[in-house]
Amino acid sequence: MATVQKFLFDRSFDDPDVRRAAERRLDAARARDDEAEHRRRDDGGRSGDEDSGEAYAGLDRRRRASDDPPPPPPDLYTAAQLEAAREEGYIKGHTAALEEAATADGHVSATALRTIAEAVHHMDAAHATHVAGLEKTATRLALAIARRLLPATAERVAAEELEHLVAHLLPDLMDQPRLVIRVHGALAETVRAGVRDLQTTSGYEGRIVVRPDNALGRADCRLEWGDGGVERDTGQLWEEIEAAVERHLREPVPPAPAAAPSATETPPAPPAASAPASATASATVPNETWPSGPALEAAPAETA
């Protein structure tokens, strides 16, 4: 849009022909004035009044020519052009507002997505930590349950387990003249009777010797023949289990609580008649203390 300047009335809007005619008349008047001045000087002031009248007439003509009001300036822009410019400005402003709103919405959306991503990352880390804690707790609980149940169960079914082991090995030992079975003294008679029946049913013609060995655990046994043997050592099995648990938990496993004496070794005193059974049982249950997490309770071995 052109810059509007203040009109200083220094521009003529007259018709060129009219302007030139006025200029010619002005020039003629000036020439006549000059000529009259020269004659007046030459004639010594002769006919001064006439020359003065003519001079005044020229001045009057010049004054009338300059006093004519100038015509109004033409319009710089039409109404249609102004309306078009106004419409264009509205469209540009509306477009700029929409772009600014879209940019603001984009910033808000990006900020929200970034916040959500950070929250999900923290939630995932917290969930992973919680799951790892649950896995460790479950492993500790499983070990505590195994320590509480397996020794008692192994002692209770030790004779049956040994008979199954002998029955599994006898078909491969038919050429062996002698088989020695070492078990805990409390199980010697039971194992001897069961093995006698196995020897009869399997057709083994060698000699089977059952020897008591109190150095073995109640759930342990050792089978020996001429050039070989097998051994069941629950202590070593527990060491391997605890080593696997330590590798999984990445922390030391507390030692197993001391088991209560079995019925065949030192029979416990009968509980008082007024004491409930649960109170008697809980009095003999030791605790396992782990490096971290709640303490897990382990029970003594049950009597066979």
TrEMBL record:
Which residue ranges have biased composition labelled Low complexity? 274-286
InterPro entries assigned: T3SS_Stator/FliH
Where is this chain compositionally biased, Basic and acidic residues type?
A: 8-20, 25-49
In its UniProt record, which GO terms are filed under biological process? Answer: protein transport
Region (Disordered), start-end ranges: 1-20, 25-77, 251-304
Instruction: Look up the domain of life of the source.
Output: Bacteria
Q: Name one GO cellular component term.
A: cytosol
Keyword set for this entry? Answer: Cell projection, Cilium, Flagellum, Protein transport, Transport
Protein name (database record)? Flagellar assembly protein FliH
Provenance organism: Roseospira goensis
Question: What is the phylogenetic placement of the source species in the record?
Answer: Bacteria, Pseudomonadati, Pseudomonadota, Alphaproteobacteria, Rhodospirillales
